[in-house]
Amino acid sequence: MVVQAAAVTSGAGDIVSRPWIHVTDNAIMNSVLFRAAHERRVAQVVFPSCSVMYPSRPEPLRESDFDASQPLPPSYFGIGWTKVYLERMCEFYAGLGVTRYTVVRHSNVYGPYDKFDLERSHVFGATMTKVLTASDGRITVWGDGREARDLLHVSDLVDYVSLAIDRQTTPFELHNVGSGQAVSVDDLVRRIIAHSGRRLTVDYDASRPTLPTSLCLDSTLARSTFGWTPSVSLDEGIRQTMAWYRQTHLSAATGG
After folding, report:
1. Contacts of 154 (CB under 8 A, 6+ apart)
2. For 64-118, how does the pLDDT look when each residue is reduced to its tens digit (9 = 90+)?
3. Rg of the Cα atoms in the chain
4. CA angle 228-62-122, nearest 5°?
5. Can you give the residue ranges of every domain in the chain?
6. How far is Cα 27 from Cα 123, in angstroms, rounded to an integer?
7. Contact of 110 with 151, CB cutoff 8 Å
8. Residue-wise pLDDT tens digits, 221-241
9. Cα 85 from chain centre
10. Least confident of 21-30, 87-96, 184-193
11. CA-based angle 94:88:170, to the nearest 5?
């Protein structure tokens, strides 16, 4: 079986200024892998997609809330339609042979082993790095802090994948996998600061690239099909990730 977690990814800066880097390579590598899995009669392919095709909305979004007739946000046009194309490729091959395909529309995943460098990281990883390495008592957050994200701990995503491997009997499944809660960037930043125990001032820079969307996912279908529910709260996830970061990044930097 194949869990296809390889991808070209980066942060908001590239998504806004160089969106093409997320399109071509991802479309090619996945198209070839899906075909190879089909031709070699692999038992199952798990494809982590994303949630960028959904509209910005305060209520939790179901899988059916994606409407292909509606425009995607400009910043997500390229990668959004690339993901939709690859989801359809999974469905296409699922109808041709013995390989089962599982598409995972997961929300913003965070936790240990994430990207924490400020060039490629997403909001959680970037904020963790800024908070724990600030040397002047201040951090700068891109945007105004009102954007909201559905944050999913990596162990909850792994649990879903394990259940899909064990329990999927149908040729094709497409599920939302998220916490079901939209957390504003401002709230996230202040929670991470609180858990750090540091006294920091937060500055907001509206001139820097941001992705002005707010959404969260309804994962009812994943629960009813595989019995999956998230188990790691955001505060517990912050504590776990911060402990890991301090041990692997800060200790290494100080020689401890």
Report:
1. 109, 110, 111, 112, 113, 114
2. 999 999 988 777 888 889 999 999 999 999 999 999 999 999 999 999 999 998 8
3. 19
4. 75
5. 2-254
6. 24
7. yes
8. 999 999 999 999 999 999 999
9. 18
10. 21-30
11. 30
Q: Which two tokens stand for residue 160?
A: 């879903």
Q: Give the Å distances, CA to CA, from 149 to 52, 60, 183, 239.
A: 11, 11, 5, 18
Q: What angle do CA 4, 217, 140 make, to 5 degrees?
A: 85
Which CATH number does 2-254 carry?
3.40.50.720
> Is the per-residue pLDDT at 3 higher than 50?
yes
pLDDT-based confidence at residue 256 (cuts at 50, 70, 90): very low
95 Cβ contact list (under 8 Å, min separation 6): 171, 172
User: Quick one: tokens of 196?
Assistant: 């750090």
**Model confidence, pTM:** 0.90
Q: At what angle do helices 234-245 and 123-133 cross, to 10 degrees?
A: 50
